[in-house]
Amino acid sequence: MPKTITLMINEEIFNPIEKKKEVQHYTCRDIISDINSEALFADGFDDAIIGYDASGFKVVYDYDKCSDILMERDSMTKQDAHEYMEFNVVSAYVGDFTPIFIHRLD
Prior knowledge:
alpha+beta
């Protein structure tokens, strides 16, 4: 039976290119959840999050971006998206951490 030799290879010598370090990516949802674990989010509108309010730590959404999402994703007209936002999203109260939807003036 042949003798088996085990060699330990030092990867740093044979692979001098430093291995890429894994980069941690945080979403707006992650950041706000870390600040307020009870924050409530509107499903499907993560791309419209613009921040959180300074006193209640509620999620703040850009109303127009939410409408744009509805028009693109669900093929709604501008009027349909507006009606949907008003009756199904903005007017829904789901507790102390109900999200805020703002109209930008810029």
